[in-house]
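ok trying again, last paste got cut off:
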Amino acid sequence: MMFKFRLIKLFPIILLLGIQINMVYGQVSPPGLGKAKTASWSVLGLRRKLDSAGTKEALTYIGLGTKSTPEDSNPFHKQAIWVVNHEIYHKFAKNQQYSYALSYRRQNVYDAAAPYHNEGVEQEFRLYGRYAYTFAFGSRWKWKNTLRQELRKFFTADFQKAEENFQLRTRLKSQVNFKISDKNKQELALSAEGLFAISKMYEPHSAWSSFGYKETRLGFYYMTDIPKTPLRLDLGYMNDLIKGYDKVDFGVHYLAVDLIWNLPYKKAKH
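nice, full thing came through this time. structure:
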């Protein structure tokens, strides 16, 4: 168990040092990991073209999140979440795209007060879909706006009902991309996302919460292909502003890294 936890803590560092693992593509935004000062998010993924026209593709990834406590600044201090996600995209018009996805998440739950002992695990199964419209300004600038709707179902570690039974969440995101260079397809991305939700509670009594604002996530990414490989590397920062969380001055600070392996379309043999 000690070796496993050390490996989990080293996983984001291995990626940040650039050790090549044959995986992943695409700026996968960090999940919210709750109350902390800092956090990390690391992704290994596989993106595959599904048609010769390049309008359909699938992205499958495994993600790992770690975080500090509300009192320290070590983003690798505690294991926070494991994620397995599969999403299919379809660009059905020049500037428009929709996608649908299935996700499993296993998140550690910690005491609210020091010394922040591990209370257990919360499991989540998530279905979501999104619609995106992109505006292009010349050859370098793009402005993408996305509506994402999620259905989140929660369980305890032994698949009993969690305190929060399920949640409907709406996410509105706006992102600006700037192409730095055609060499290695280098880009910068700046984004802002607002999250709104309504929940069906199981404890302390069965009831619906009111629909309302929950948090804002601000992101900044650098993205590039790795020369002479099918890999794309995304390095980023996210600031998570959680409603009602005042133990930090300006949100929870995330370091993020994605390594995406891109596979071209391959026609099936009959």
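cool. Residues 2-16 form the longest helix (15 residues). The chain is about 5% helix and 60% strand.
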